[in-house]
Amino acid sequence: MTVSLIDPFQRAITYLRVSVTDRCDFRCVYCMSENMTFLPKKELLTLEELDRMCSAFIGMGVEKLRITGGEPLVRRGIMNFFKSMTRHLESGALKELTLTTNGSQLEKYAADLYAAGVRRVNISLDTLDEQKFADITRWGRLPQVLRGIDAAQSAGLRVKINTVALKGFNEDELFRLTEWCAERDMDITWIEVMPMGDLGNENRLDQYWSLKDLRATLAEQYTVIDSTERSGGPARYVRLEETGQKIGFITPLTHNFCESCNRVRLTCTGELYMCLGQEDMADLRGALRDEKSDETMLEGAIRDAIRLKPKGHDFDYSRQEVSGQMSRHMSHTGG
Ligand code: SAM
Ligand code: SF4
Predict the structure, then answer these.
(1) 281 has which bridge partners?
(2) Cα–Cα distance for residue pair 149/115, rounded to 1 Å
(3) Cα–Cα distance for residue pair 163/140, rounded to 1 Å
(4) What's the sign of the alpha-carbon dihedral 171, 172, 177, 182?
(5) How many Å apart are CA 142 and CA 149, to the nearest integer?
(6) CATH 3.30.200.20 fits domain 15-161+256-333
(7) Rounded distance, CA 46 to CA 32, Å?
(8) How does DSSP classify residue 290?
(9) Residues forming a β-bridge with 264
(10) 125 Cβ closer than 6 Å to some ligand 2 atom
(11) How far apart are CA 174 and CA 177, in angstroms?
């Protein structure tokens, strides 16, 4: 039996997030600039290479695969990749196959995703106001995403909403979003805006809405009960007594969650990032494309990479300046 992946700090790596494309049909202001230059297609791992890579990780103990991007569902042929991962769910090696999506293509793909074995999906949505939605995503249209959410639920997928907390943007929708999710039996996770990508004209500090403040506002109308549930990632959870709803808080900037980190991220070009907040990465594409490449070589390259996993990250807003600023875009590493 293959030995599982253990990093230098004795953390078992059981969760792989895979960005399958850097492209997207939206241009969310906190994620991309309006005129993004995307990678030439030949730089991307092919669907076959993605399969080989994911299968290698699964062979080494990865039990959870999250497909992300860019927008994963705009990658041509991506449903074939989902279908090819079904075999690992059927063998029991893979416990969960899931994705994070902006929801724009779900009307088309929800039933196929369910058929491939996906049971849960994270859908990003920052506002229920059509105009605000168009403003924040630049190219997105709310009704299309709402139809995608309907399709996902009708197909039997459990939906979690991911919402970026943005001061002066969706502060006034805290209760509306909470109620809307409760009515539809969806959990919601709030994400603090992160200093990713270029800041351009927009200053992330102006947009920064602390989740501590958000939680305090929530407690004005609900009984907020702490939950001990952890995901091995940056999310913490509470339950609202009145609705039974689970609310997540992703606070990478204010909490240190690194000690229990169980995950690594693969970019669409085959770079493995050991930590969202550090530049350390290993290029696995070479091991994949080398003409002598076989599964042993790939496995060796993955093990070497995991040895580089750092203890933690350096994001810090506490001194009212953005330090630990990363030049990478979220769409590159996958959110
Ligand atoms: N396109 C898909 C989507 O939007 O769900 C998947 C990729 S997207 C990069 C993944 C998540 O990252 C989304 O929930 C998005 O809101 C979040 N995100 C992007 N840029 C962010 C930033 N600067 N700070 C915090 N979250 C961000
Ligand atoms: Fe696209 Fe997701 Fe980034 Fe928005 S957050 S631009 S939907 S990748």
Answers:
(1) 273
(2) 17
(3) 15
(4) positive
(5) 11
(6) no
(7) 24
(8) S
(9) 16
(10) no
(11) 5
Confirm or reject: Cβ of 29 under 6 Å from ligand 2.
no
User: Would you kindly state where each structural domain of the chain is located, as residue ranges?
Assistant: 15-161+256-333
Tell me the residue type at 179. E
Distance CA 2, CA 146 (A): 44
Cα–Cα distance for residue pair 208/186, rounded to 1 Å? 25
Collapsing DSSP to helix, strand or coil, 260 comes out as helix
pLDDT of the chain, 335 residues: tens digit per residue:
566 899 988 889 999 999 999 999 999 999 999 899 999 999 999 999 999 999 999 999 999 999 999 999 999 999 999 999 999 999 999 999 999 999 999 999 999 999 999 999 999 999 999 999 999 999 999 999 999 999 999 999 999 999 999 999 999 999 999 999 999 999 999 999 886 644 455 555 578 899 999 999 999 999 999 998 887 777 899 999 999 999 999 986 654 667 778 889 999 999 999 887 777 799 999 999 988 888 999 999 999 999 988 887 665 444 344 444 444 555 555 55
Q: Measure 330 CA to ligand 1 centroid, in angstroms.
A: 6
Contacts of 138 (CB under 8 A, 6+ apart): 26, 27, 28, 29, 34
| Spacing, Cα 105 to ligand 2 middle (Å) | 13
Q: Using the mean position of ligand 1's atoms as its centre, give its distance from the Cα of residue 114 in Å.
A: 23
